[in-house]
């Protein structure tokens, strides 16, 4: 009997990652500190039992314990559960599979964008419960296309899948929605390892007489593998341990297939394969015995035939009954394509369609020293790698990304240098004298070529993508120097020419405030083209300094007031983009009205009071008080809030007259003292009058004349 192991059988990288994190936690955590997993770490009773023997207990609810370390299993948990763990002050180790994290993010994104979310999966599965939590429990969960027909379908629907779902079932659910909803978004969240494992099991089941599926009976992906194999019409047996195998299953079987779920450890798979091979040896021994007995009964001791039968049987035993499908062996020096499946602090694992993932050590990931791997690659990303070494004995493949990138980059760089073209690259690091960028090889941007002006803070460029032009190139010295400044200069010259050719007076444009001066602000109205917004054009009211109205970095809308192409100057206005408050001033202010404002300026002839943006009134010095006022600042100060009375409104002259004294009570004249004897004897100079004491001064008599003259 030939035994064939399906491709991808056993642990997926998400399960491996969870077990690696657990093993690391066991090593590093103090032995006295309890370690728990929130629910079984993976759906395999044998592995869970092993972890328990190492001191890792299963905790079903967050509040079952009071302290210690809690490992979140590969299925993940809902946000509220994670918050509860943190509130209970556990040390949390998140072992959620990256593929599950991706499904969670997409579910939340769809919900936030207003889509009705549908999850294709098993409602009771912990992974589905976790994903459901990222939609605030608003998603619908279905397991078949038929269940979708029973749902109240919204006009905008987003659909995702449990990571262990079959591709065919997910596609059928998507097709059920296609044409029914107005706006449909479908995210394939099925784990690539799951898809590969299911495809492999499906194809193998069609080529063998019997299939054995190994894995926990509580494992959704293992049960799905068994269902797929049965759909091919092949006798299929789902087992957890080698002891469950029965010899009669393989009676008359020439070819048997084996696959395993994502939570099945290698040692269980090896145990099953070993036990199945023992059944094969038993069959061979029985066949030899039958041939010998038959020869004895016929009394034809054909020794040569018996020996030949034994030899044939032994050859059959020596064949590799655990051989996998043919897998192409990577060749050292070859540049191949792979998909990133796991990222850790010291290496990156890449799926290269081989029996094991390839490994990129940190020093072969990038030329940037001490770089963060997640800044260079991401899980699921397809990358080119160069094969450095293949170790057949253990199946390890050593890879290099930086060497593959270099091999692919030099030809492109040489072509760009000759043609004067540009490329875009991400800034990775600040070094002495400039920046380093990753273009497949180490690229350098001198500080003087980073921008059009002087840059004193290069750190802000880390992580930015810059368009660059090559100014020096020497492959033999592995040296390439770039300039971002030259690209900006070319863009600026082009934008400036276009601006002076197209801008017109009265046109409104958006801009960003770049610099402030005492007399105004310089505003970038596109591609580095700047215009001057003079302080007098910022507001209808008086502006002491531009910073009172705008700040550097503000996005504003301005009006083109003038374009001088010869002097390359553009004049801008801000107040012109809003309505003139004086045009409707009579609707808000009338004579006799009480108003409150802020004193903005104190001058010789009075004080200006701001009533609103763009509207100021004048309190003439004669209107400050009933008493004689020598200096206006003796009564009011800039910044002071004052209550005034409107005594005149002239929208044409853009003037409002205000009075403070009219809101104050008039002073009472002091009583007249009795005249002295000498005074009584003096002639009455006021004879012919009403004999009342004169209290009127010159200011009161001629104040209006002085006011008119001053205004003029």
- CATH topology name of the domain at 193-318, in short, is Cobalt-precorrin-4 Transmethylase, domain 1
Largest sheet: 5 strands, mixed, barrel
End-to-end Cα distance: 117 Å
For this structure, what is the CATH homologous superfamily of the domain at 193-318?
A: 4-hydroxy-3-methylbut-2-enyl diphosphate reductase, catalytic domain
Contiguous low-pLDDT stretches (5 residues minimum) are: 298-327, 685-696
Strand order of the largest sheet: 13-14-15-17-16
Number of strands: 32
CATH architecture label of the domain at 193-318: 3-Layer(aba) Sandwich
Query: Helix share of residues?
Result: 25-40%
Strand content: 25-35%
Task: Tell me, rounded to a whole number, the average pLDDT.
Answer: 82
Q: State the name of the first-level CATH class of the domain at 193-318.
A: Alpha Beta
Evaluate the radius of gyration: 43 Å
What class, by secondary structure content? alpha/beta
The number of helical elements comes to 16
Query: What general form does the structure show?
Result: elongated
Task: Report what the structure shows.
With 712 residues, the chain is an alpha/beta fold. Among the domains are: 98-190, 3-Layer(aba) Sandwich (Cobalt-precorrin-4 Transmethylase, domain 1); 193-318, Cobalt-precorrin-4 Transmethylase, domain 1 (3-Layer(aba) Sandwich), CATH 3.40.1010; 335-393, Nucleic acid-binding proteins (OB fold (Dihydrolipoamide Acetyltransferase, E2P), Beta Barrel), CATH 2.40.50; 420-488, Nucleic acid-binding proteins (OB fold (Dihydrolipoamide Acetyltransferase, E2P), Beta Barrel), CATH 2.40.50; 503-577, OB fold (Dihydrolipoamide Acetyltransferase, E2P); 591-663, OB fold (Dihydrolipoamide Acetyltransferase, E2P), CATH 2.40.50. It is 29% helix and 27% strand. The protein contains 16 helices and 32 strands. It has a five-stranded mixed barrel. Helix 9 links the parallel strand 10 and strand 11 (235-239). It is elongated and about 145 Å long.
């Amino acid at each position: 009997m030939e035994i064939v192991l399906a491709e991808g059988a056993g642990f997926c990288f998400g399960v491996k990652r969870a077990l690696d994190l657990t093993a690391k936690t066991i090593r590093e955590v103090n032995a006295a500190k309890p370690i728990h997993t929130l629910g079984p770490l993976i759906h395999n009773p044998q592995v869970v039992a092993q972890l328990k023997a190492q001191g890792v207990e299963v905790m079903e609810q967050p509040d079952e314990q009071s302290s210690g370390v809690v490992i979140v299993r590969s299925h993940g948990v809902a946000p509220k559960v994670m918050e509860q763990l943190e509130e209970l002050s556990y040390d949390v180790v998140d072992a959620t599979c990256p593929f599950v994290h991706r499904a969670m993010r997409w579910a939340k994104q769809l919900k936030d964008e207003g889509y009705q979310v549908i999850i294709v999966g098993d409602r009771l599965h912990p992974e589905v419960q976790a994903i459901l939590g990222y939609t605030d429990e608003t998603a619908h969960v279905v397991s078949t296309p038929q269940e979708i027909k029973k749902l109240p379908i919204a006009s905008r629907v987003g659909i995702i899948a449990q990571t262990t779902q079959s591709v065919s079932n997910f596609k059928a659910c998507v097709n059920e929605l296609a044409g029914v909803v107005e706006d449909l978004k479908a995210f394939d969240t099925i784990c690539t390892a799951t898809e590969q494992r299911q495809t492999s099991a499906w194809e193998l089941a069609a080529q063998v007489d019997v299939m054995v599926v190994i894995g926990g009976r509580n494992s959704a992906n293992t049960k799905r593998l068994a269902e797929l194999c049965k759909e091919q019409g092949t006798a299929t047996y789902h087992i957890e341990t080698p002891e469950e195998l029965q010899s009669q299953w393989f009676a008359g079987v020439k070819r048997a297939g084996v696959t395993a779920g994502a939570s099945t450890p290698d040692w269980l798979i090896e145990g099953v394969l070993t036990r199945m091979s023992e059944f094969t040896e038993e069959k061979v021994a029985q066949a030899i015995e039958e041939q010998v007995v038959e020869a004895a009964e016929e009394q034809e001791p054909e020794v040569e035939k018996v020996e030949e039968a034994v030899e044939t049987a032994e050859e059959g035993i020596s064949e590799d009954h655990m051989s996998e499908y043919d897998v192409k062996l990577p060749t050292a020096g070859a540049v191949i394509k792979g998909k990133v499946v796991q990222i850790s602090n010291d290496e990156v694992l890449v799926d290269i369609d081989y029996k094991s993932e390839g490994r990129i050590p940190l020093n072969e990931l990038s030329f940037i020293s001490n770089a963060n791997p997640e800044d260079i690659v991401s899980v699921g990303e397809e990358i080119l790698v160069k094969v450095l070494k293949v170790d057949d004995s253990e199946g390890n493949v050593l890879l290099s990304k930086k060497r593959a990138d270099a091999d692919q980059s030099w030809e492109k760089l040489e072509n760009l240098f000759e043609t004067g073209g540009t490329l875009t690259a991400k800034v990775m690091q600040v070094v002495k004298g400039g920046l380093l960028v990753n273009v497949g090889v180490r690229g350098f941007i001198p500080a003087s070529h980073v921008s059009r002006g002087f840059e004193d803070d290069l750190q802000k460029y880390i992580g930015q993508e810059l368009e660059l032009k090559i100014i020096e190139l020497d492959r033999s010295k592995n040296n390439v120097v770039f300039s971002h400044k030259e690209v900006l200069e070319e863009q600026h010259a082009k934008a400036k020419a276009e601006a002076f050719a197209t801008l017109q007076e009265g046109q409104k444009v958006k801009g960003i405030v770049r610099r402030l001066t005492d007399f105004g602000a310089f505003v970038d109205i596109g591609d580095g083209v700047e215009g001057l917004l003079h302080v007098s054009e910022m507001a209808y009211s008086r502006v002491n300094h531009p910073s009172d109205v705008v700040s550097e970095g503000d996005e504003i809308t301005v009006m083109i007031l003038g374009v001088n192409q010869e002097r390359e100057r553009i004049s801008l206005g801000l107040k012109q983009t809003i309505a003139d408050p004086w045009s409707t001033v009579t609707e808000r202010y009338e004579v006799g009205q009480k108003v409150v404002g802020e004193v903005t300026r104190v001058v010789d002839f009075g004080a200006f009071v701001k009533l609103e943006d763009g509207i100021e009134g004048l309190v003439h010095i004669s209107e400050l008080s009933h008493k004689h006022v020598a200096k206006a600042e003796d009564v009011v100060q800039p910044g002071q809030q004052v209550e005034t009375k409107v005594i005149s409104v002239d929208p044409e002259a853009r003037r409002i007259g205000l009075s403070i004294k009219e809101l104050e009570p008039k002073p009472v004249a002091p009583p007249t003292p009795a005249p002295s004897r000498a005074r009584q004897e003096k002639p009455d100079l006021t004879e012919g009058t009403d004999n009342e004491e004169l209290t009127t001064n010159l200011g009161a008599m001629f104040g209006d004349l002085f006011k008119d003259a001053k205004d003029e």
